[in-house]
Amino acid sequence: MTTIRIAALPTLGRAARTALVLVAAVAAVALTLRVNAVRSEVHWLERRIVQVEQDRLLLETEFETRSSQRQLAEWNEVEFGFRAPSGDQFIDDGTQLAALGADPARGAPSPIRLARGGHVEMSSGALTELARALDSDAVQRGRQQFHRAVALLATSDESDEEAGRAEQGGSDAARLARRLTAGTGTAAAYGTRLVRSGP
Amino acid sequence: MNALTLDRALGSGRVQLVNIRRESLARARQRLLLVAAFFMFVAFVALVRLVFVGADAGAATGTPLAQALLPARGEITDRNGVPLARAFPAYSLWFNPDAMGEGQSPLVDTPVRVAARLHAIFPDLDEERLRAQLAAGRAGYLRRRILPEDANRVHDLGEIALETPREMDRHYPQGTLAAHVLGYVGADGHGRLGMEQVLDARLRDPARRATPVPLSIDMRVQGALEDELERGMKLVAAQGAAGIVLDVDTGEVLALASMPEFNPNRLDAVGAQLMFNRVTNQVYELGSTFKPLTIAAAIDAGVVRDFGARWDATPVRVGRFTINDSHPLGSTLNIPQMLMHSSNTVTARVADELGPARLRQTMIDLGMNQRPAIELPARGYPIWPGDNWPRLQNMTIGFGHGVAVTPLHLASAYAAMVNGGIWRPATMHKLAPGEVPQGRRVFKESTSSRMRQLLRMTSRFGTGRNADAPGYRVGGKTGSAEKPGAGGYQRSAIVSTFAAAFPMDRPRYVVIAMLDEPRGTVASSYQRTAAWNAAPIVGRLVPRIGPILGVRPDETRDVDISDLVPLVPEAQR
C-alpha cells in the first residue's frame, strides 16, 4: 500500500502537494498546542495538589495540636474522669465472659434491688437512658438558658446602670440576677439582662 | 470652437482619466498587498510565538511535584507514626502599607477601627501598639503565627494591607510532650538539644527527608509518664522529676521525661533554663536502688547462696566511720529481708565479702563508668571512683553512695538484671525485630531469675508496696539518697527514686521514677522517702501504660516466690 502511495505522489499536482504539506503542518501545530495545553493543565493540577496537600498538612497539624495528649488528659481530668481499667476488668476467654451472665446458684443471696422513680423499660440500655435524660424538658430549658447567657455575655458590653435600676425595683428578677452572677466576677448587668430575656 | 477640437480635448481628458484610474488602482492593490503582507507577518509571528509558548509550557515550569511536596525538614514521629515534629506552612500576619499602591493610604478604614477589629480576633495583641504601628505605616509582622480560621477572619476585614503569607515552620503538635527527647530547631535551621540535633543531617537530606523518622517513643506512654510525674512532683513540691520507661529486651526507650519541661514551640528565657535533661545529663547518687545490683553481683559470684542465712545487721565500723541503718532492723537479717527493709549494714557486709574487684567489674559491665549509652547529645559523665576502691568506698558503693550516675544508667542496669542478664544500650530509634543489638552478658540467667523474685518480694511486702498495682506484678526497689552539698551530705535535700520492672513473671519494661528534693506533705503522709512519693507514681503509672504496651493485668498470675516466703515472717502475715 505504502509503495503505491509514494509512487502515486509525483502524479499529484503541485498545488495538491503543497496543500498536503500545509494541512500536515497545521495539524502538527494544532497537535503540539493541544499536547501543551494538556501539559499545562497537568502543571496546574500539580500546583493544586501541592496547595491541597499543604492545606491538609496544616489542618492535620492543627487537629493534632488541639487533640494533643496533654489537652486530652486535661479534659479527662475535668470532664470525663476515665481511669485505667483494673485487673479484674479483663476477661480471659468466652467461658469467663459467659460466667458473668450465669443464673445465680442455688442458695445464693438474691441480688439487691434498688427503688427508682418512674417507669424504665427493661430492655433500654444505659445509652438510651442517657439520651432520654438529655432530651428531657428540664435539661432542654437549662441548655436554652445557658446558650442565652453565653450569647449575652459574648455580645453585650453595657454599664451596670441597668442592674442598679433593676435592684431598686427590688423585684425577684434582680435577686435572681445577683445570684446568677455571684462569685463569677461578671457584672450584674449581664445577670439582669439574662433574667429579663428569660422565658 | 469646432466639434473636432472639442472631441480631441475630450479625448485627451479621457486618456488622462484612464491613466489616473489605472494608477490609483495599482496603488490601491499595492497597499492592499502591503496590508495583507503585514497582517500575514503578524499572524505568522503570532503563530510562531504560539508554537514556542506551547512548546515551552511542556518544559519544567516551577518545581516538579515531588520536590514541591518534599518537606523543608523531615518529620519525626513516635513508634506508631504519630507526628511529634513536623515542618509545615503556617500563616503569619504581615502589615504591608504599600499594598494599596505607593503614596496611597494603606488602610481602607481608620487605624483605630482596624486595630479594634484585629484585637477582637486576637485578644492577646496589644491594641495600643497595634494602632500605633498601623497609623505609622511601618511594614512588619503584626503576629508571627495565626490559625487558619483567624487568617480567614482577617481576610474578611477586607483590608488589603493585612497580608497572611505562609511561612515554613517547625511545629511540635504535642507541645511540651517529650520536649527533651525532641529538642528544637534553632534560627539557623539546625536542630538543637535532642533528636533534632542527632538526626539533623538525616532530616535535612533531600533524598531522605520525605520519609518520617520513627522514634522508639510511644506518645501515649510518654503522656502518661509526664502526667504522673507532674502530679507526683506537685504533690510533694519537688524541684524536679525524671522518669523513663525502657523495653528490657531491646533497650528501646518508650518514654523519657525530665520535669519541668520547656515548650519547643515557644522558646524563651524560662524555657532555656529548663532544657537540662535530668534523665541523661544529671548524675545522682541513687542510693538504695543500687542494693539489688550489689546483691545480684554477690549471687552471681557465689557470695550469696543461702537465702535463709542470717547476716549481721549491727552498725559497721570501718576506721573512724560507722555505717548505720536509717532505723534499727534487729541484730540479724537474711537477704530477702535486707532488700525489703533496705538495710545499709547488711549490704555493706555483702559488698565487703564480694570485694571491690568483683563489684567494680559488675559496675563496669553495667556501663556505670561511661556516659549513658543513648543517642541523645546531652549525656552526663558519671562520678566514678576510679580504679582502686578502698574498703569503705566499696561498702558505700554497695548501697549507692560514692558513685553518681544518671537515671538512664540505672534503667539499663535494671533491664539487664531482670531480662536474663543481658545488658543492651538504650536507644531512641525504633528497632525492627532483626536490629536488636546482641548486648553483653552481665548476670547469669539464674541470678536474674532470683532477682525477679527478690524485687517482687520488696514491692509486695517491703518498701515498694505503694507501687504494687494489682494484677501487674510490679517488682522494684526504693532509694532515698541525701544530696551532697557544701560540707557533706544535706539532710534536708534528698533524691528519691523508685526503680521497677513489670510484669515480674516475664519482665517486659523497666520504669524509673525519680523526684529531686521532695518535701514531706499531706499527700506523702509527711514522709520524704521514695516509698511515699516515688513508688506511688509507679503504682499509678503502670496500670495506665500496661494495657497500651500489651501487658494484661492478671491477678491470678505472679512470679513464684514460694521458696522465699517462708524465710520472711512479714510475708506470712
Present the secondary structure layout.
The complex is a heterodimer of chains A (about 200) and B (about 575).
Chain A: H1 2-8, H2 14-66, H3 69-80, H4 94-100, H5 126-135, H6 137-155, H7 161-169, H8 172-181, H9 188-196
Helix pairs in contact in A: 6-9, 7-8, 7-9, 8-9
Chain B: H1 3-58, H2 65-69, E1 76-77, E2 83-95, H3 111-121, H4 127-136, E3 140-146, H5 148-156, E4 162-163, E5 166-171, H6 179-182, E6 184-185, E7 191-192, H7 195-198, H8 200-204, E8 213-214, H9 219-235, E9 240-247, E10 253-259, H10 269-273, H11 291-301, E11 311-312, E12 316-318, E13 321-323, E14 332-333, H12 335-341, H13 344-354, H14 356-365, H15 391-398, H16 407-418, E15 422-423, E16 440-441, H17 445-461, E17 475-485, E18 488-502, E19 509-516, H18 530-545, H19 569-572
Parallel strand pairs in B: 1-8
Antiparallel strand pairs in B: 1-2, 2-3, 2-4, 2-5, 6-7, 9-10, 9-19, 11-14, 12-13, 15-16, 17-18, 18-19
Keywords summarizing the entry:
heterodimer; A: 199 residues; mainly alpha; 9 helices; B: 573 residues; alpha+beta; Penicillin-binding protein 2a (Domain 2); Beta-lactamase; 2 domains; six-stranded mixed beta sheet; five-stranded antiparallel beta sheet; 19 helices; 19 strands
What does this molecule look like?
- The complex is a heterodimer of chains A (199) and B (573).
- The model of chain A is unreliable at 156-170 and 182-188 (pLDDT under 50).
- Chain A has helices at residues 2-8, 14-66, 69-80, 94-100, 126-135, 137-155, 161-169, 172-181, 188-196.
- Chain A contains nine helices and no strands.
- Chain A is an all-alpha fold.
- Among the domains of chain A are: 2-66; 135-196, no CATH class.
- Chain A is elongated, with a radius of gyration of 39 Å.
- Chain A starts with a helix and ends with a helix.
- With 573 residues, chain B is an alpha+beta fold.
- Chain B is built from 19 helices and 19 strands.
- The N and C termini of chain B lie far apart (166 Å).
- Helices cover 39% and strands 17% of the residues of chain B.
- Chain B folds into two domains: 68-98 and 138-214, Penicillin-binding protein 2a (Domain 2) (Alpha-Beta Complex); 222-572, Beta-lactamase.
- Chain B is elongated and about 175 Å long.
- Chains A and B meet through helix 2 and helix 3 of A and helix 1, helix 2, strand 2 and helix 9 of B.
